[in-house]
Amino acid sequence: MKLALHNFVRSRMVTTALIVTGVMLVTEAAVGVADLDCAVSELPARLSDTGLYFDIASKRIACDVLPYEPQYPLWTDGAAKKRWIRLPSTTTIDASDPDHFVFPVGTRLWKEFSFGTRVETRFMLLGADEKWRFGTYLWSVDQRDAVLAPAEGVRAACESGPGVAHDVPARADCTACHADGADAVLGFDALQLSSDRDPLASHAQVPAADGVDLARLVRSGRVRNLPQRFVDTPPRIAASSPRERAVLGYLDANCGMCHTQRAPIPGLDLDLSYSLTRAGPPAAIATAVERASRFRFPGDAELQRIAPGAPDQSVLVRRMSARQPLSQMPPLGTHAVDADALALVRDWIREDLVPTQSVATNSSSHDTRN
Amino acid sequence: MTKKKLASNWIWIAGVTLLGTGVWMSATASAGDAETAQRVARGKYLVDAIGCADCHTPLVMGPNGPARDPNHHLAGHPQQLVMPAAPKLGDGPWAFVSAGTMTAWSGPWGTSFTANLTPDRETGLGAWTEEQFMATIRTQRHLGKGRAILPPMPASVYANLNDEDLRSVFAYLQSIPAVKNRVPQPLPPAEAH
Question: What's the pLDDT score for residue A42?
């Protein structure tokens, strides 16, 4: 599989180089990579032309590009990831809604995926028409540069582990998770960038020393209109236990982009996103715990989405454990079960949640949501 | 000008304005109605021409052989028809089988049941938005973000329809009688569980 990817990238690079070299020689000199035209509908052919690197040969990042680390990362079959953002000079992010930042035209974000070596770097650009453009760049064998992947993506571009394929997504797959407008950027909001980081968060990576977090962005003036209470106290998930905090963060980052009341799935009433501004119990608790599921595995009776005390009888666990296309959750972007997160969720359901009936009959009236 | 005449003029102006506004609103509504009707008609033409009913309206046996069930127009696989496990076909060359209704199909992908396309809010497309319908066809994923649309649905063919045609198809589907019919979820292949 790696050989197929390498051959593909090599052939693409040769073709691309022949086509664009002449154009690039003229336009790079006249325009410069920092002035990438936000009005163009096409993305640059090479990663080195997107503005991420000052010098791609040494992998030195451009000085106006900021690394960051969300505290609750998305699971992609164990890929090691690096993330960066670049805001046009003098522009700011509007954080009036701390869950959904509004970004200035010209914002660029990158996410690099590695399985031992760099495989792909995904790229988002907010154009002058206020539409997001998505693309991903496939790294060459020699890791010198990466070329824009075809719109239909590349199936089984490499292996994320023994016998487990990694698919480079099609452009249409990007928009499956990255919706329009303020829902396009994922993993870059007040909770994800909070300096009050969750020690139990699954797969969290240590932020780079020069990375930005919420407090630093506010101090530097690049984030404005953040509600004062989150300036005074870094935001965190309100939960009844440290384990629940980590579970809710995981569900928000891995499920909440689709299962959200902001774009509800007709007839489902399931919201696994976490909102810093929501009153009452977290949406995931309210819409999943002890709620009947219509999903049936063959031979199953009716199950609950989350059955307190019974992880094996919880559809959430069953679907997180599945990697059959008709049953698995998430439905795309992964071919390998996230064993660590699954263990976390199972422990939470078994140890932290108590069926309502038991609570009602328990004279001690233990409050599971203190 | 006397106060009485001034008041009379104002009443006259107000009347004309109200009349004009009413005529304008009526004309706008009529234009909107005409546009909707045109879109629904175009949608019906497309749905008939591209064969949606072939699989989404169950066949029932009549005096002249199989015929579409008029009470389940585009309502998908009948929920009361519980299918037994699909027969095993071995290594081929036969690859998939269909129920006699043409609404249940089984092959290497598993077993799929054709969807209820009527505007029933609980079991059909009644709660769907136009954007969700278009995203489903364009991305060939459920609601544009879920599991893949399964065979035999030729979503990759319908993805070639332009936006206006897809809007018309959706408008027509929202205009037909709602049928309450909860179609079963697809089943994975037997060997997958």
Answer: 82
Nearest to B139 among A176, A266, A324 (CB): A176
Of B127, B148, B185, the CB nearest to A266: B127
Closest chain A C-alpha to B193 CA, distance in angstroms: 8
Mean pLDDT of chain A: 88
Nearest CA in chain B to A174: B145
Q: What is the mean pLDDT of residues B99-111?
A: 96
Whole-angstrom distance, CA of residue B125 vs CA of residue B121: 6
Helix (H, G, I), strand (E, B) or coil at A89: coil
* Residue A57, pLDDT score: 97
Cβ distance B193 to A331 less than 8 Å, yes or no, reads no
The answer to whether B68 and B59 are in contact (CB under 8 A) is: yes
The 10s digit of each residue's pLDDT in A53-97 is 999 999 999 999 999 999 999 999 999 999 999 999 999 999 999
Nearest chain A residue to B139 by CA: give it. A172
Q: Do A324 and B193 touch (CB under 8 A)?
A: yes
Structure tokens at A244: 């629940």
What is d(CA B9, CA A20) in angstroms, rounded to the nearest whole number?
Answer: 73
Q: Do B139 and A327 touch (CB under 8 A)?
A: no
| ipTM confidence score | 0.78
SS3 state of residue A148: strand
Q: Is the peptide bond before B93 cis (omega within 30 degrees of 0)?
A: yes
Cross-chain CB nearest to B185 (options A265, A266, A296): A296
Q: Which of B110, B127, B185 sits opposite A267 (nearest CB)?
A: B127
Strand, helix or coil for residue A346: helix
* pLDDT tens digits in sequence order for chain A, 370 residues long: 444 444 444 444 434 333 433 333 333 333 334 445 444 458 999 999 999 999 999 999 999 999 999 999 999 999 999 999 999 999 999 999 999 999 999 999 999 999 999 999 999 999 999 999 999 999 999 999 999 999 999 999 999 999 999 999 998 889 899 987 788 999 999 999 999 999 999 999 999 999 999 999 999 999 999 999 999 999 999 999 999 999 999 999 999 999 999 999 999 999 999 999 999 999 999 999 999 999 988 888 899 999 999 999 999 999 999 999 999 999 999 999 999 999 999 999 999 999 987 665 554 443 333 3
Spell out which residues of chain B touch residue A327, defining contact as CB-CB under 8 Å: 188, 193
CA dihedral over A173, A134, A145, A40, signed as positive or negative: positive
The answer to whether B84 and B50 have CB atoms below 8 angstroms apart is no
Maximum separation of any 2 CA atoms in chain A, in Å: 80
How far off is chain A from B146, nearest CA to CA, in Å? 6
Residue B157's contacts (CB-CB under 8 Å, 6 or more residues apart) are B50
Residues near A147 by Cβ (< 8 Å), separated by ≥ 6?
A9, A12, A13, A16, A45, A46, A47, A137, A138, A140
**One-letter amino acid of B49:** A
Query: CA of B13, closest CA in chain A: separation in Å?
Result: 44
